[in-house]
Amino acid sequence: MLSTGSVPAADSLDYWRQGISEAFVPLHADAGGGEFHGRMRVDDLGAMLVSRVDADAHRVRRTPALISRSERGRYKLGLQLHGSCLLVQNGRETVLRPGDFALYDTDRPYTLAFGEPTSMAVFMFPRQRLGLPGEHVLARRIGLDEEPGSLLSPLFLRLVKDAGRRATAAAPLASATLDLLSALLTEQLADRAPAVPHDALVLRAKAFIDEHLADPGLCPDVVATALHISTRYLQKLFAGEGATVSAWIRSRRLEHCRRELAGPQALGKPVSAVGAAWGLPDAAHFSRSFKAAYGLSPREFRAQALAG
């Protein structure tokens, strides 16, 4: 619990700034002058921090300098309860009114401007919990007139009400709400993605994969992020091609290994080095995958190619 009523009026804004910085991430806070009133309750539900903030008109900012000293890898979701709020992030501005909510990233600069006494529920959780490309979801108003808003706002409101009274019982609901948020936003992103034709996205994905085959860390999440789409939508694109993204990456790596093993450039080169050069550093895994694809181990295949 945090309340400016526990400190002298002259210290209230400094006290508020320190309190919200400790509860969430380091923030600057300023108000229009005069006495400032604010109170906040924060509950830890395991999967997320759940809070309710009631305060006079003020503004909070997350600056590049503050971010450089305290990256957290967190999303915050603000659900407007009373009054209004202007959220600015990623070159985008959105106004939230009661029932609206929006996501913002604590590792990117943002501003929340409350022009009047206001109440907001704030939920903070790890960014990877959603698995979404951030630039497409940040600072976008989601209201009760949209499916995600109509389904999720009541759940978020329930979390705020239940957190203080029975946090243990609310923890599973918090995790389930994040799962539903991820699913609904992924579906929403997929609906918007056809601005780029399906075939063009598949070609771009395959081109990116071919350019990065040597990177052992190449995976569906990396490809989806590069294309600014969700991993779920990327998998949907490749399902239309009759393959999974991981299977396509593996097949392209093995094809390059096969070509190299069949050519003179592989002479005197350890078989394991060929696999490692194409993103398959585990020699045993490379040998098993190659044999499953071509019926021979890499060593046997090279010997047969040389004999031929």
UniProtKB/TrEMBL annotation:
InterPro entries: AraC-bd_2 (IPR035418), AraC_XylS_family_regulators (IPR050204), Homeodomain-like_sf (IPR009057), HTH-like (IPR037923), HTH_AraC (IPR018060). Pfam families: AraC_binding_2, HTH_18. Keywords: DNA-binding, Transcription, Transcription regulation. The keyword Glycoprotein does not apply. GO terms for molecular function: DNA-binding transcription factor activity; sequence-specific DNA binding. Residues 203-304 form the HTH araC/xylS-type domain. This is Helix-turn-helix domain-containing protein. It comes from Amycolatopsis acidicola.
